[in-house]
């Protein structure tokens, strides 16, 4: 297995200090980029690297940059999506807290490649530690001439503002994020026409990328396309739930789920068996043990009706009550629905009421068809992907664990010990 | 007109306004700054924010109420946010939450009568490797058991 690339220096004390970063070759890729490469060349390299957006949608980063119009004299912006709030996902927070300069260097290169002079980091409001780290790192990088005016004597200017969010999952969705950054409520915008690349912040072309996406950039420039791809290409999996060694696992994309869970995340607690998992955050359809040999990559997971998403793997062992897990996810989307459209706003309320009823032992057999019917009616009718996130898992759980729902309805009781003791 | 916010905070908001191409973009950071001063957002404080940024009060209120981190009522001196989402749920957060609420005699979302602590059940804090996890004010505490929670509570002023 290749050595880690993005996570090589994580966890090292003092890593957030610029001298520690410079000591390991930090900001060299940015100097090379600004001094020796044209913006077009960088876009070409990033496109050839095959890097796909790590925020969830997986859009090719190079293509996004190419699609961003670069008209002379027109304002363009770079916006970093650091709002990480997809349940199960924690790679971005880890990168921000433990190697903030890596992100900043990626931003600098991305801004130069897109000829952007103003960048914003939309940072999740609850990331108190991350805010301090990133702010300190940015101040140091400004002081050393990596940001501001005439960067490294190249004539390139870039200002960066760290903008704290204030607690709203929907603001991770890119158009809601831009609304929020404009000082409004976080309601998603209509796409088209509001694709950020062409009509983004203040209606201007806006390059909007996820934290991890940008953290890959310095390595792509430093190693070249082939050198970078020899690492897999790498991807950060956030693995949590019922595993013995949860954490951020940097592995070649397409590593089989079984290997990720059992070799890299410590496997399950003694005597337990795997019951189900979310492969890409709580918005991805749940899978079961029969899917463990699937490569954790975009296409293979899509083929199963699930998705890689933000590559957050949440593992559940045989002590898990599936209707209870699904209720928790439905409650999350219910609480975080922005309320703009009816199928999402009302559908999530109805679903959670029915799930409540079933878990309280007052369910009826018809409730199972009702759940499925509501989920079907939500599919394709919601304004944004938040509402669309609910049906896949619910329906997958009804397919895989129908008997468990039936048991709750028939007996009013749960057969599994619903909550497992931590690490026990 | 009487000002609710101190000169220092008003100055900070004016500085924030200058960071953005359009002043209204400074609204969230300005509300954070205002809230830090008093612990919550009074109508007078929101009026000050709106005046400084050129945003009508009704708009300021409508934005402030959209975001979970802004409080329009006085919260406790300490704020405990406990994650109740999937990975924490799978690792026993319900037990921790129950213990916490029992110890403080409050329900999630409430503040202790002495105004010391507000307890809030929150969404995934993006720290699932540390489940069950909670934030006490700005500090994150990993793998919290009911016993560990007792220690943390004992240390709160
Ligand atoms: C409801 C919802 C929440 C999202 N949350 C995030 C998030 O927290 N972080 C993120 O980077 N992308 C999130 N996304 C994806 C963004 O809309 C967008 O695709 C991404 O930030 C683009 O960057 P990338 O191409 O580098 O991945 C979310 C999408 C939706 C629909
Ligand atoms: S699907 Fe849900 S979150 Fe998205 S716009 Fe509609 S109500 Fe808002």
TL;DR?
The complex is a heterodimer of chains A (424) and B (157). With 424 residues, chain A is α/β, with parallel strands linked by helices.
Structure write-up:
- The complex is a heterodimer of chains A (424) and B (157).
- With 424 residues, chain A is of the alpha/beta class.
- Chain A folds into 3 domains: 18-229, Rossmann fold, CATH 3.40.50; 234-315, Roll (Ubiquitin-like (UB roll)), CATH 3.10.20; 322-421, de novo design (two linked rop proteins), CATH 1.20.1440.
- In chain A, 43% of the residues lie in helices and 13% in strands.
- Chain A contains 17 helices and 10 strands.
- In chain A, a hairpin with a 5-residue loop joins strand 6 (234-241) and strand 7 (247-252).
- Chain B folds into 2 domains: 7-66, Arc Repressor Mutant, subunit A (Orthogonal Bundle); 78-156, 3-Layer(aba) Sandwich (Glutaredoxin).
- Helix content of chain B is 43%, strand content 11%.
- In chain B, strands 2-1-3-4 form a 4-stranded mixed β-sheet, covered by helices on one side.
- Chains A and B meet through strand 4, strand 6, strand 10 and helix 12 of A and helix 2 and helix 5 of B.
- The complex binds flavin mononucleotide and iron/sulfur cluster.
- Residues 53-57, 59, 81, 83-86, 170, 172-174, 208-210, 213, 384-386 of chain A line the site of flavin mononucleotide.
- Flavin mononucleotide binds at residues 53-57, 59, 81, 83-86, 170, 172-174, 208-210, 213, 384-386 of chain A.
- Chain B: Its cofactor is [2Fe-2S] cluster.
- Chain B: This is NADH-quinone oxidoreductase subunit NuoE.
* The CATH homologous superfamily of the largest domain in chain A: NADH-ubiquinone oxidoreductase 51kDa subunit
CATH class of the largest domain in chain B: Alpha Beta
What is the residue-mean pLDDT of chain A, rounded to a whole number? 95
Structural class based on helices, strands and sheet pairing of chain A = alpha/beta
CATH fold call of the largest domain in chain B: Glutaredoxin
Percentage of residues in DSSP E strands of chain A: 5-15%
Keywords (chain B): 2Fe-2S, Iron, Iron-sulfur, Metal-binding, Oxidoreductase
Cofactor (chain B): [2Fe-2S] cluster
EC number (chain B): 1.6.5.11
Pfam families (chain B): 2Fe-2S_thioredx
């Amino acid at each position: 297995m290749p050595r880690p690339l993005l996570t090589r220096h994580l966890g090292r004390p003092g890593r957030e200090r610029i001298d520690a970063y410079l000591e390991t070759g930090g900001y060299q890729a940015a100097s090379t980029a600004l001094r020796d490469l044209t913006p077009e060349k960088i876009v070409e390299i990033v496109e050839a690297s095959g890097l796909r957006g790590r925020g969830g949608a997986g859009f090719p980063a190079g293509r996004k940059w190419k699609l961003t119009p670069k008209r002379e004299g027109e304002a363009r912006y770079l916006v970093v999506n650091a709002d990480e709030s997809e349940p199960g996902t924690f790679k971005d927070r880890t990168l921000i807290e433990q190697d903030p300069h890596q992100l900043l260097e990626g931003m600098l290169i991305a801004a130069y490649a897109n000829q952007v002079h103003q960048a914003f980091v939309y940072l999740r409001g609850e990331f108190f530690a991350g805010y301090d780290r990133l702010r300190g790192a940015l101040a140091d990088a400004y002081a050393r001439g990596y940001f501001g005016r005439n960067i490294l004597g190249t004539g390139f200017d870039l200002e960066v503002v760290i903008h704290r969010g204030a607690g709203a999952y929907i603001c991770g969705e890119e158009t809601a994020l831009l609304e929020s950054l404009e000082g409004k409520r976080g309601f998603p915008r209509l796409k088209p026409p509001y694709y950020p690349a062409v009509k983004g912040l203040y209606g201007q072309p806006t390059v909007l990328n996820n934290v991890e996406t940008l953290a890959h950039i310095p390595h792509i420039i430093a190693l070249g396309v082939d050198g970078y791809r020899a690492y897999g290409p790498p991807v950060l999996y956030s693995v949590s739930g019922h595993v013995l060694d949860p954490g951020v696992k940097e592995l070649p994309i397409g590593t089989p789920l079984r290997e990720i869970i059992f070799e890299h995340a410590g496997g399950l607690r003694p005597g337990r068996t795997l019951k189900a998992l979310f492969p890409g955050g709580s918005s991805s359809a749940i899978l079961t043990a029969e899917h463990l040999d699937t490569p954790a990559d975009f296409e293979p997971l899509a083929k199963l009706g699930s998705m890689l998403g933000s590559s957050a793997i949440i593992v559940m062992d045989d002590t898990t009550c599936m209707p209870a897990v699904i209720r928790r996810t439905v409650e999350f989307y219910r609480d975080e629905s922005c309320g703009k459209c009816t199928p999402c706003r009302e559908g999530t309320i109805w679903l959670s009421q029915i799930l409540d009823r079933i878990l309280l032992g007052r369910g009826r057999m018809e409730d199972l068809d009702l759940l499925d019917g509501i989920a079907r009616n939500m599919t394709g009718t919601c304004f944004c992907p938040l509402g669309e996130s609910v049906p896949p898992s619910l329906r997958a759980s009804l397919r895989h664990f129908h008997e468990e729902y039936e048991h709750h309805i028939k007996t009013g009781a749960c057969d599994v010990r619903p909550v497992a003791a931590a690490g026990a | 007109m009487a000002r609710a916010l101190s000169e220092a905070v008003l100055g900070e908001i004016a500085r924030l306004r200058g960071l953005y191409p359009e002043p209204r973009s400074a609204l969230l950071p300005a509300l954070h700054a205002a809230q830090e001063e008093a612990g919550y957002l009074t109508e007078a404080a929101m009026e000050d924010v709106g005046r400084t940024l050129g945003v009508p009060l009704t708009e300021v209120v409508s934005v402030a109420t959209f975001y979970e981190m802004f409080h329009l009522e006085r919260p406790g001196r300490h704020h405990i946010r406990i994650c109740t989402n999937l990975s924490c749920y799978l690792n026993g957060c319900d037990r921790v939450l129950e213990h916490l609420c029992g110890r403080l005699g409050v329900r999630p979302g409430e503040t202790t009568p002495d105004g010391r602590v507000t307890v809030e059940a929150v969404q995934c804090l993006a720290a699932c490797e540390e489940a069950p996890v909670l934030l006490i004010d700005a500090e994150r505490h990993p793998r919290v058991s009911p016993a560990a929670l007792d220690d943390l509570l004992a240390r709160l002023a």
